[in-house]
Each structure stands twice: as C-alpha cells, then as structure tokens.
Amino acid sequence: MLISRRRALALAASAPLLVRCGSGGDSVRVGSKNFTESFVIAEVYAQALEAKGLHVVRQFNLGSTQIAMAAIQRGDIDLYPEYTGTALIDVLHLPPMHDPTAMFATVAQEFARRYGLIWLQRSPMNDSQALATTTAIASAQHVTTLSQLARAAPHLRLATIPEFLSRPDGLPGLKKFYGGFEFADVRTYDIALKYEALMTGKADVATAFTTDGAIASDKLVVVRDDRHFWPPYNVAPVVRKATLDRLPQIRATLDAIAPALTDVAAQSMNAAVESQHRDPADVAAAFLKSASGAK
Question: Which superfamily does 27-126+233-293 belong to?
Fold first, then answer.
C-alpha cells in the first residue's frame, strides 16, 4: 500500500485527540486514524451508537494504523474503522489477496485469533488504488478499463506521486501485470496537486484512490481494474471482543448501516469535508439521515 494513500486533514498533524462525549447509557470509546475518511466514518459509527442510547466517547486523530491498533489492544478505545487490505498487508503481514470475501474471512479469523478483535460487517465501499481521468479523455480515448488504458498509455500523460513509480503495487506492478502502460510523459506532484494537473490540462490520467472526494467534486472517471490487480480495501468496524460481550447491540447497530457506506457515499462525504470545509460531524449526520430514509 502506498504510504500516502490517505488524505490527512490539515489539523491532523498538530491537533490533540478529538474527544466529544455523548450523554447517558453505557459507554463505548470510538477511535479513528488521522485522515478525513477515518474521521467521517468513525463519526458515522459514533452517531449511530448514540442514536441507540449508548454513551460515546470520541477518541479521534490517533495517528497511523499501528497507533490505532496499539490503542485498541491496550483497551484505550473499543472500536475504530479499519480497511481489509490494510489489515491483511500492514497489520498481519500476509500477501495480498484479490477476492474480497476470502480476504475478509482471513482478516476476521486472524484478528480474532491473534488479538481478540472482532470484525463486524464490511461495507461495499472500497478505498483501493486506482487511475482516474476526465470524462472527455475517457470518451475520446475509449478508455474504461485498465486493459484499455494500458494500450492507450503512449498517447497519454500521467500525473502521480513519486512512490507510485517505484513500488511493486504502483506503475512497475501495472506494467508487469497488464503489460503496456508506457505513458508518453510521467510527472510527479504533491498528493494534493495531481488532480489539479489533471483538471488544468497538464495531465490526462492521475493516480487516485477510489473514494477520493475529488472524484465526486471534479466528476472524474475511475478506470476499472478489470483484471483485479489491486487488492480490495473494504472498511468495517473492528471491535474488542470484551466490548461486544458487554454491549452486544453494537453489532446490530453498525451492521445495519454498513451496506449504505458505498464508494459514492464515501466520495461525497470526503468531498464535503475537504472541498466544502464542512464539519465531519455534520457530514456524518446527513449521511445517517439519508441512509435511514432510504430503508
């Protein structure tokens, strides 16, 4: 996984833990990592639990995966949102898998066995690596899949981040797996500027993650990984077994909202926070209201 695959909030580097308490009921401590999507999804979990009468303590902005895992193992938090691909590769140090069902089963089994942590239902949203382009370029070049893009690459310019050019799950891996991908020009940018290069005509294709807010706000086309090169990164709550034993209603509450967390929903929420500068709590509340109305 690329180290900079997540979009950090500007406040994340310097802010203390974001702690907001609910009122009444049994207490559950919800954590998050230090990037936009983790804040928002953790807030979705927190508000859903509060709606069921639980007293929620928010311990957001914990930092990296390693810090969040250490916190839940120590009992400093009861649950937090995690990604199947991150868990498999970065936590369990197992080789990538490409079947999302098999990956989830492996991750759930190993987390329970090694750490006493339970994975609840995974959401369909998949924050995986991707390549994105504009609708105009996708139409002009007849590109909807990575197989097609591999052949069209000599006519296109790529905007990316430096590490994508050297990692086996970056451009070298794409060339080996799909063949082709010999772009006419490749230029590296800061992670926040690669979409700007695409939208201002300095590039034709940009590296992406499938739930990036810019995909929604800029109306971009995510090129489909038709041969499944990249492993899935479905999100799900990871919960301490002792917490579930004490508060079994957590499972039903969070499982009920899992199906509504789709790629489109995540893109929309990320864009609302990053582009529209809305508070993650307000964005989460709007999502839960919409999800409830859709049932």
Answer: Periplasmic binding protein-like II (3.40.190.10)
